[in-house]
Structure formats: C-alpha cells, structure tokens
Amino acid sequence: MSDSNDYALRAVGLRATFDRTDAVTDLSLDVRTGELLAILGPSGCGKTTSLRLIAGFETPSAGSLEIAGQLVAGPNGFVPPDRRGVGMVFQDYALFPHMTVRQNVEYGLRVAADRRRLADDALAMTGLAQLGDRPVHALSGGEQQRVALARAIAPRPRLLLLDEPFSNLDLALREQVRHELQQIVRETGITTVLVTHDQEEALSIADRVAFMARGRLVQVGTPEDVYLRPATIEVAEFIGDANLLYRPVDAGSVVTPLGRFPLAGAATAAEAAVVIRPEDLEVHAVSTDQVRDADPADPLHAAIATVVHREYYGHDQVLQVRLADDTLVRVRLGSRDKFTPGCLVAVTLRQPPLVLPRT
Ligand code: ATP
Q1: Of 144 and 92, which is predicted with more confidence?
Q2: Residue 212 CA, closest ligand 1 atom number
Q3: What is the mean pLDDT of residues 235-239?
C-alpha cells in the first residue's frame, strides 16, 4: 500500500478562476516521487495555470494541494512560492543576462550556507562547469536553457516545474537537450512536472503523460497508454496521427470497408469513431484483373482502394488512399515500395482498431 511519502505532489480538485471564468476547472493529480510527468494539451487548455497553481503563483479558488506530504494550498492555508521547495524553469528562462552563469545559479541560494558547493554540483550536473564565469548573454540558446535548469535544481528542490522548456530551441537542439534533461532528472531523482503542447516531447521523455483539455485532465497514463489506448476521440486526435472514421453504431458495432468493429468497453453511443493509426494499416498492390475477379462477399474486395497522394519522407512514406465508400485514409509504410497515385491497393489492418464513442 502506498502512503503520502510516495508522492511528491497530490492535487485534489484544484481550480483557478480569472474574471469569473475557470482556466483550470478540476485538477486532480498524483505524481510519484522521482517521476517525470508531462502535462500535454492544446494551447489555452490551462497547462501554464496548472503549473502556476502548483508553484504558488496562483491561489486556487477551490481544491487542495500537497507537496511532499505538506499541505501548501487549501481552504485552511496557503504556503507562498519561496517556501514550497519548488524549482521552476520558465519558457523564456528568466535569467539575468549581464550576470555570469555562476551568479545566476547562486542567485537562488543567497541564504544557503553551502551555496558554493550547491552551485558547483548544479553546474557539473548540467555540464556547465567550464562556463561559470561567462556572462549569460554570451551563451547559446541551449546553454542558456541549461543555466536555467542549473539554477532551478541547485537548491535541491522537492519538485521541479518546467514550462515549455524547449520551445526557444531549434529542432535538432531540442532533441539533444530534452534527452539531457531526462538524464539529469533520472540522476538527481528530482520529481519533475513538465508542461508542453508538443506530443512527441511528452511521449519521448515522460514516465507518464497527463492530457489536458478545457481546464481538466482527460487521461493520465504511460506514453503507451495514451497513444495505444486513448480514452477519448480528442486524445486520439491530439496525440499522434490518427484516421478517425465516424460511423453510426448499430447493435454495438460499426461497419467500415475494413470490417465491422465493436465499440470499446461498455460504451453506448449513437455514433462512434474508428481510430486507426496510419502505421496500423498495410497495403498490397493489386491489378484491375484481380479486382474484377474478386468475390464481392470477400472482405478483401471491400478493402480495395486507390492511391490518391504520396508523401515520401525517406525514413518512411505516407499514402493517402480512397476506400470503396470514398473514405480517405492515411497509411504509413516503409520507404522501399513505390505506390504512385492512381495505383490500386488492398488495404488491411494489422490489428483490430479501437472504436470510441462520440460524446
Ligand atoms: P499555452 O500552451 O498557449 O501557453 P496553456 O494551456 O498554458 O496555453 P493557460 O496559459 O494556462 O493555457 O491559460 C488557460 C486560460 O486561462 C486561457 O484562456 C487564458 O487566456 C486564461 N488566463 C490565463 N491566465 C490568465 C490571467 N492572469 N487572467 C485572465 N485569464 C487568464
């Protein structure tokens, strides 16, 4: 059985209200000690406000919050940000440009007796030991990002909060820096909550992903959970590429040219979406003779499609194909086979798809 020491963060029903509108309606979330959790969601869904509630920059209008077992916000009290033991990296890093790297890192350690040692540790951890005397304005974007991280982890916080920490970096650097961040978090064991609208970022570095929409968490799970078993159509649509085939529900299942599929779980709905990841489809070339001779009762017959468009990426390719009922679907396949527009193909599924109710 777990007790509250297993959790660095426990939020129950947190709400943030601005001008009588809720930016965060009901944030209920447990983050285990040492875990890296990513809050993922579209712009304006309440991610930054959630982080600010946790840091103490916003006062919740309802709910309660515990950090490392200590109640820091609730009906009976509020602990200010500087006494929460929380480190934060902001989107723009908020560094002092004319101070050196070391001065920036030591800034938050003013009252610590061993500030020099704590700063040295943080600089070493983030690979900045050689750059301590350099003014921050003379650093690259990736190095500045590391200074912001060093400053946040130097006081050994109980919780590290990162708001879109990679958004100012170009794509190649972003991949490298997020891998470094993951290593640092693992080595220090600091519990981390990261906010991002980049699904690839969330899936590739987080232990768990919390998907947020309209001020609420919709699904919290491992990267595999949210990608392979999305709880709602919205999650399936936002995380990764998905073909969504909307169909009426008849006797608990839906019919498509690719087959009849049952609705997931015990759900009931008038309409549902068949969720098909492009990489879960396979195509095989067929000739016009094979199509003419095929038995219409054969399920393969129904799955004959025409290639409409091809995007070649090198490491893979995506075909857009038109199914027998005119539905367009995307198919992701290896880079070797060449299917040109107009080509006839048989489309098959690698495994039964998820069918989610439209609510
Ligand atoms: P983005 O990814 O674009 O940064 P987000 O998911 O972080 O978005 P928030 O910044 O938390 O979203 O904003 C959520 C909602 O609350 C938005 O509609 C925003 O306009 C509103 N909001 C945030 N802060 C305030 C404020 N101080 N006063 C009024 N409204 C606010």
Answers
A1: 144
A2: 6
A3: 95
